[in-house]
Amino acid sequence: MGRLAADHGAVAVRTVTLPHPLGGVEPDVVATRADSLIDAVLAALTGLPGGGAGTP
Predict the structure, then answer these.
(1) pTM for the whole thing?
(2) How far, in Å, CA of 29 to CA of 45, rounded?
(3) Which of 4, 9, 30, 56 has the most CB atoms lying inside 10 A of its own CB?
């Protein structure tokens, strides 16, 4: 994915991987998995470790 993105000008693409499967899994399990990824998603979006929590 990173190479394809770079080929189209997006050289700093960041990814976060969600554990699978999602189908057939109880909603509370999916919610727990999603909660565990919040810091990683924020870090990917902001480029800051920990998602920049607590920064002005």
Answers:
(1) 0.54
(2) 24
(3) 30
Cis peptide before 19 (omega within 30 of 0): no
Q: Model confidence over 21-36: pLDDT tens digits?
A: 878 999 999 889 889 8
C-beta of residue 38 within 8 angstroms of C-beta of residue 51 = yes
How far is the C-alpha of 20 from the C-alpha of 45, rounded, in Å? 22
pLDDT of residue 19: 77
pLDDT above 90 coverage of the chain, percent: 9
Residue type, 56: P
Give the start-to-end residue ranges of the domains of the chain: 2-52
